[in-house]
Design goal:
The protein is of the alpha/beta class and 248 residues long. It has ten helices and seven strands. It folds into two domains: 159 residues, Rossmann fold; 69 residues, Alpha-Beta Plaits (2-Layer Sandwich). Helix 2 packs across helix 8 and helix 5 packs parallel to helix 6.
């Protein structure tokens, strides 16, 4: 199946839209195929502010609407306690909210940006999506992450080279309770690193220590910036460390 064929069969659909590479290309493809598509962005404590900015920018550039929904994940104990099944409960909460709103808006088909590279065995969020009958056109059409980037670049989408960016909750060590204050500390730390020109990195934490994960190619720059980085991140965390295991 091709995306053109998918949208011919499903000419009206709601899209769970993150503003990342995959869902951005899917939105573009739907518009190119004359589908009645409505992207829904879920604003939660787990999403950094730049994701919503990117989502709004792309919607403007593609000339389509965008609906922003708000959800407080931290009010759900199964999510805030940060257990092994956090992602499942989180995705189920998100997709349920989008599906309900989309149905009220007249959309009976809900799609997401899951691609053919995503391993279903390691994605509890995909299990939640399956239970709610969320379709994944990129995956169904055999389009993986590399292909989505290539097609996005050819289409002129600014998101084509956007680094993968898992939600802020993934930065918190499993079983460490997630709080709004802790997420804000992580986001401010990562915003600072972005402001210095870093990309493709993570600031992980157990609540006390900031553990930097960064690509090997940025290490020389990190060494040069170490004093200012350490000084800034210690505003939020008691200690700052570098995770060397992320290269293995």
């Amino acid at each position: 199946m091709t995306l053109s064929e998918f949208f011919a069969q499903h000419p009206k659909a709601a899209l769970g839209f993150s503003g990342g590479v995959d869902s951005s290309y899917l939105l573009y493809a739907a518009i190119q195929n004359k589908a009645d598509i409505m992207p829904y962005f879920m604003k939660t404590p787990f999403q950094p502010a730049f994701e919503l900015r990117d989502a709004r920018r792309l919607a403007v550039e593609l000339g389509c609407g965008l609906k922003v929904l708000t959800l407080d994940h931290l009010a759900a104990a199964d999510i805030a306690k940060n257990g092994a099944d956090r992602c499942y409960h989180c995705k189920k909460m998100i997709f349920s909210a989008i599906k309900n709103q989309a149905a009220a808006d007249g959309y009976t088909v809900l799609i997401d940006g899951c691609n053919a590279s995503d391993d279903a065995g390691d994605r509890p969020g995909m299990r939640a999506a399956g239970e709610l009958e969320v379709r994944s056109p990129l995956r169904e059409c055999g389009i993986d992450k590399a292909e989505a980037r290539r097609l996005s670049r050819e289409a002129g989408l600014f998101t084509w080279d956007k680094p993968a960016y898992a939600c802020l909750a993934t930065r918190v060590k499993p079983s460490t309770p997630i709080t709004a204050e802790l997420l804000e500390k992580v986001e401010r730390s990562e915003d600072f690193l972005f402001s210095l020109g870093y990309n493709d990195f993570r600031v992980r934490t157990d609540g006390q220590t900031a553990k930097l994960q960064i690509t090997e190619g940025q290490m020389q720059k990190l060494f040069a910036d170490r004093v200012k980085i350490d000084g800034e991140l210690r505003k939020y965390f008691a200690d700052v460390t570098l995770d060397l295991s992320c290269w293995s």
